[in-house]
Amino acid sequence: MVKRCAFALLVLVLAAGMLLTGHEAAAEEPWAEIEGESFDFIVGYDAGGSHDITARHMAEGLTELGIEVDVTNMPGGDATEAGYHVADSDPEENIVFWAHPPAQLFDPATRDVGYDFEDFDPVATMGSPTFVFAALVEQPFASYDELVEHIEENPGQTVVGGQAMNHPMHYAFEMLLPSDELDYSYVNLGGGADVQANLAGGHVQAGHLSLAAALPLYEDDELEILVHTSEMAETVDAIPEVPHMRDVGVDYAEPHSLSALAPEGIDEDVREALNAAIREVIESEDFQEDMDEMGVVAVPHTIEETESYFDELVEDVLPDYEAWLEEQN
């Protein structure tokens, strides 16, 4: 009798332990809802850029958590073709738009791209690539103030290169070098690699490009980085000595955070699970190291924090951008 009671007690203890372990596992793995499922991450630019590379690093991390991710490049319309494709998709298809605010919010708010920001449910924000203003070391200026002074002393003779026209990236350029106050020539180039090539070739004297594109020349002491425009950090680890644009008197930060947006109506449990998984990847040491090497400031956001981020853009940045855009047109 005593042996039977002892055996029964042992079974109860083991069962309780297994139950506790199961609860702990569930608590440790809030993405369990989507383990074994497959997601499509749609990137609106060609392979090799910051959008594509970050998406693929994220896909690798999610795969290690048991969530399969297929990254598809769908360039066109400054990523708005990819945005339209996702917005028009069935929310049950496990499809995500991996992009930045210009394609997710600013373009839909200011021109007809076939969708609105409200056509998405924000899932997560992972942080932002760092963008910089840079010049070759041989130029007669080595700081932002010296660049402004050079333009003022040589009106109409300075050529600078950017990545867009009448676009949030052009707007960031205007915040630093207001064309109604400074006389210079602005050249719209195709992308960061084009800006880098034109800087290296001496075709433009200063340029706006991603830190990832600038780092090779910077590390070879061929490029001077004048300021950075990160919205996530005042100091960027890869370039700690470079001032933020706020440090040179320009009260602005470039909204370039990469976010995952699903079509409106995604299952809320799936949305929560995917957000938890994305945050788990962002917080991993490997992902942080990979992002640091690219000059990406990776900061995990909950769904609520992601929604608040976009709310702040709508309230604080979009009205001024719309007013500037109207002046340009």
Automatic annotation (TrEMBL):
Keywords: Receptor, Signal. The keyword Nuclease does not apply. Pfam families: TctC. Residues 1-26 form the signal peptide. Coiled coil: none annotated. The keyword Signal applies. Belongs to the UPF0065 (bug) family. PANTHER family: BLR1237 PROTEIN, TRICARBOXYLATE-BINDING PROTEIN. This is Tripartite-type tricarboxylate transporter, receptor component TctC.
